[in-house]
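B., you asked whether I could sanity-check this one before it goes into the benchmark set. Here's the sequence:
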Amino acid sequence: MLSSERYSTRVIEPVNLLVHAATMTVESELMSVFGIGDEEKDKVTKCQTIMTLYDLSVEDLSIKWESYVMTQANDPEMKVSIESLDKLQEYIQQSIRKKNQQNLTASAMKAKVRPGIRTNFNMSNLPSMGPPSTPSSSAKKRRLETPLSKSHGMVTSSPVSGGLAPSSDPVPATPETPLQSRQADSGTIIESLNPEIIDSAAEGLVEVSKPIKITAHFEDSKYNFRPMGQKLLEAADILDEQIETFTKVVQEHYQLPDDAFANPMAPSQKQVVVVGRVVPDSSVNQHNIRLDATSVFLEASRVAGYGERAQLKLDNIQNYSFFPGQIVALRGQNPDGSGFIVDEILQLPYLGSFVSSESDIEKYRENLNGSALKVVTCVGPYTRSDNFDLSALSAFVDRMNNEVHPHAIVMLGPFIDVTHPKIADGSISLPNGDPQTLDDIFTLAMTPVLRNLDQNTRVILVPSTKDATAKHPTYPQSGFDRKSLGLPRNFTCFPNPASFQLNDALFGVSNNDVVKDMAEVAGPLVERKNRFDRVAVHVMEQRRYYPVFPGGVKTRKIPGTETIEHISGADLDVPYLGLTELPEVIPDVLIMPSEMRYFARVVRNVITINPGVFMRPTGNGTYAVTHIKSPDPEDLEVAETDGDEKCYLHNVWKRARVDIVKT
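And here's what the prediction gave me:
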């Protein structure tokens, strides 16, 4: 793990260093977001034509493009061209036509009764459960001996034809709405990872008899800091420390002498090793920058290179993947001081794998009575953008109680989305009371629905930077206040990001869209690989849940002007980025929520999941159900010996099934 000295909870003077997107023209924004060169004005003109036709902002167009290449073209690495933009325009037109047809159908079925929110909950017989425990001394880590030479399993997700039957229980006191008319396939499995390992239908019949144990792998007190109080010097120190820490890691791993390292800008006739941060060719930090092979620069630390930036010349390598904020170690030379010629990329060593003793494995088996651990993961928003109807969430709660019976549900925000139109303009009204504050909206709308969850199901809430009720609007974030939100004791509020253990499985959760924000430039050999896998590998290699810097920003065009306005984004609190690092070992399950298409994959023996969003702007979304077979020492790989007791690799990826389910 990287140095823990940065985890200081000192009070920072309130100096705001959050970097927002500079005012840019639409043309420059398009060139930045889509990686369009100065000589390709025809592509910019085509993009502007599409934006004008469909009243889209640059951010909206970017989302449409990502959706098109992932779902329609099925080519994540498609380049922007006039032909591909023509097809994008056809895709947008087809989407609008389909939406109009759905609206016509919905209008004919529109109900006359106003939907309500179920409030018949029972507070009696709540389980007596305290806060999550801290890791026991028996939890151990194992350093991978040869991380560069080990072969790693790669399993991709596969669609399945079968699925869970929708709940036969009626949705409580809610008239038929357009939302319900599209719920015919709710609960259907639309994609599965390792479907042959576990029969999910049979496991759904097993009810939870007692709450599962949760072990927190973080110190909650370190999140008690004042956000948006950054000092320029302290932020610079943290960024420098990241480079210096990895320099020591690389030196130790490759056993390099001190004189092997050099300033990338210093002329050198011999090969040297440089460690620094990948940055664009601009002297001013900008958000949502898309690199190309000619605009990649390396920024050295102030100790090693006075903070100078050297252009990277990549002609000698084919297998590379760079993104802004990435810490890299390179071998090469700068013969005339004009740029650093890269001859080799030194792969950063990975963290170790999580292991447990034989006695701990037996305890884990006893906790589950030999059955599989079931964990459901869902990501907000939990309402559509045109209303604040929580009937889909209510139906989800009923399905959890009556069909799925999970041991734990990991719910990620936003719960009360600050960008929701009705929240932004203050026009929201609730049937069971008039909210006076944003917290009231949660307690009056969300709490009554969530309290209906089975009290034997442990529920973990993780906030988002878009949560109106979150104390910290920046990343990293402290958790919600469970008591102030009126939630029962089977709910646990964790920070963002968080690492925690459910029985034997170590989960890592970060509620910041690194999949969308990691705008990388890749060599021809790397481009043929799956982009989702590349993002997961970067997170594990960089040892940070969100290694992009500066973070992504969501913007929109102010109507009637050419000004680009900041809406939301990663909003990094730089002095506390140490709290966004992975624990001392790589998690068994890595949750990477994103607006992009859902996925469940195995990447370097780690299960990586994007559950998708629970509700899309105009319809249902998806969530993930993970089944993990109870550990058996006879099936596990021995990692090391602790005295007379054996230790075992968890190998969760070999005994887990992940289903992507329709909301």
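One thing to flag: The two ends are 37 Å apart (CA to CA). Otherwise nothing jumped out at me.
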